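re: ur question from the group chat, yeah i did fold both. here u go
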Amino acid sequence: MFSQIEIKETLYSSLKALGLTNHEIELYTTSLSLGPVSISQLAKQLNINRPNIYKIISELENHGLAKFSERKKHNRTFMVESPTLVRELLAKKRESLSEQDVKLYSALPDLLTLYRQGELPTSVKIFEGKDQFLKIFFEVLDESKNEIIYCGSVQDLISGFIGWAQEEKWIAQRLKKQIFMKALIFGGSDAEKLKLDDAKQKRETRYIKNMQNFPTSFHLYANKIIIWQPKTPLALLIEDEYIVTMFRSIFQVLWEQNK
């Protein structure tokens, strides 16, 4: 059983989630226990003058949570709708938000291409541990649109840490989203396996030459760069259009040099 305090807090949170103001919530909860009541009685109970009571009632009516009796105007009483309707309205709002979330998720890559950081501070986040590492690894696909750039060691990233099962799952999701990939990588068995499937996996792979091998790597996508350090493991996510532009420029030079 809920206590009276818990019941009131639950109702307050639900009404707040529907966008009601504190005055509207107070009127609703007071009227709920009073039942059908005249405006004068309600004004006296809440210590609010009649004009303001009518304004608050009007807002409650807009939310679909208030109604007047069908009597003649001067004899009408006011009452609020049942809490059952509050639950129904919350369910509709959740459904609407869920639909909007799906639309926003689909539009996110396009929105990020429009985003200009300007004077906003650089965002730097560090993700540690395998769970966090894999989470951000797959989030690369959520925010990418037409192309993803990768540079570094696939041997250390795939065989050394995430495994081919996760890599193939990632590739499948990328292909489903029709995202092309440029990969500039060090040679090795994993690199050869990737390059062999370039044509059917919407990817162009080139080998890095004349450079000492290193275990780290990075992804460039949207307005972000993720630097992977699989030895610890950790991932460094940087959101800064100027840093991303610099890395893109460096990548492009290396890409041309390693045709």
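okk and heres the other one u asked abt
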Amino acid sequence: MVEGHSLCFTHLLGQEKAKGMLQRSLVTDRIPHAYIFKGPDGVGRRLFGRGFAAAINCHNRSIGRACGVCPSCVKIRSGNHPDFMVISPEKGGIKIGEVRKLCKDLTYPPYESPMRVVILEDVHAMRAEAANSLLKTLEEPPENNLLILTADSSQAILSTLTSRCQVVPFSGLQDEDTITILRQHGVDISDAQFFSHLSGGSPGRALLLLNTGIAELWRDIVAGLSIEGGEPDSGLGVVLKLAERMAGMKDHLDDLLIFLRMWLRDLLVAHHRSFTPGGRVTQVPEEKLGELKSWNSAQLFAKLQAVNTAERALARNCNRLLVCEVLLFKLQRTSSAESNLRFR
């Protein structure tokens, strides 16, 4: 955001298409009964939903914007507004019991506002029975209620949900906008520049990488992969320790694998650009390439495939520690069939 805690969604950085759609709805007073905010995770969908809820019920609304200081805005900012709710998934998705309770609550009028606004997060992870329980409410919505569903654009969503909502598209932010947001959260400029790119324009994902220890573990993995090829015993010990730390990431292991994939792709881009006449590596800062610049295309493609294989194994509930060990050995290994280059 431009203004750290502003409730005005028009002050949020990026997402110009989403801003235009939502502001037109407010100005024309043609608000549908349900939206789906569809886009990558961590790009501001929940903040937009909160800002839109504030604008709808603001006592001093002007040109589709919340004032941020009236009693309604203050309650939404503090998370204590009786007519604004956020329902987040627990252990994989929103449960059918929560949906049934919500549908019952929606039959009552709002407590103090013209419209009740409910955000249901990550509906792509909602099980079929929970989604079907929500369908009747979406088909025949009670008056003075607005549902805002958020969904990851990379995940499949039940068509029955999408067809009953107005879809508002969200996208990854420009690097400069992501950097600005990260700097507002106290991230130094070097890390902000690097993680803004590797997060795919998602400030939320970048902060997750930095705040959960994923970034620190990634740096240690890079250092471990840079061990001299002539030190197998040392390399084995490092790999086993790193694999144990990876397996201990639990809920964030998937994020670490996504991070590793993006990093390897950037190394691949850097490799090809270095062989392009006049080419300039811009995706990965030179200091982040480290000792791994010696990997060739075949090796990098093989390592990307190893990350994909690890993700599939985790999806099948294979042993987490074993998956991490196998992955790191594949990432570390160099093959003479692929290249004569060794770690330097």
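fwiw on the second one: The two ends are 43 Å apart (CA to CA). DSSP finds 15 helices and five strands in the chain. idk if thats what u expected
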